[in-house]
Amino acid sequence: MGLGLLGLSACGNRLNTTDIESSIKADIERQGRRLSLNAVRCPSDVSRQAGAYFRCVGELNPEGTFTINVTQQDNQGNITWEVPNSKVLLNLPKVEDTIQQGLSKTFGKRALIDCGTATYRVNQPGDRFQCQVVGGIETGASTIESVLVKIDPDGNLSWQELQAASAVPPLALATGGTQSAAGLAPPSVAPKAAAPSPQTDSAAKTTTVTGPTGRVINRPYLPGDSN
User: Fold this and answer.
1) What percentage of residues in the chain have a pLDDT greater than 90?
2) Own/partner pairs, 152-159, CB within 8 angstroms, 24+ separation
3) What is this structure's pTM?
């Protein structure tokens, strides 16, 4: 969640905020996506006190400044710090948590969201990036595999699900249809029974004629033949 833990030397009853500034700046740059901070500035007169809270400011050029919340864990100079989402810098684990809660509320299913290895990203108006839905979320006919995060001109975030069609198992159709690479193939049609060929009546009437060579030929009776 963008927390840092520092064990720093103190000057008397005061925190050494110069060391705090340097350590926070280095950590944010190390955990960020191509980030180079101009500076981190903290109050110079902070008393050591367990549980006490103070605020530092990070500077990016040309984007501007962002807030760093710092909490003292004890009175020995150990602190934790956190960078909330702002118009200048995004805390990606917080973005992931927001998307996770939104998907859970909408679909009643929880899934891990992965927006990449970086912890911090510049909040750049008009920018967009994808976060993966680890394992996907089945929604019936489709699967949510990722979400597209968009940043509007005012630096506000919105996101939408990117869905892929779920694999459809082969269908067992009564007529024998199958799932083919090109889609659902037309159902096979049973071949029609061949029309019965005219049956020859075993007692069909025949006529005896004489061929050119004088051979006797029996052929079917034709109307007009003399009886």
Assistant:
1) 61
2) 152/125, 152/126, 153/125, 153/126, 154/87, 154/125, 155/87, 155/88, 155/123, 155/125, 157/85, 157/90, 157/95, 159/99, 159/102, 159/131
3) 0.67
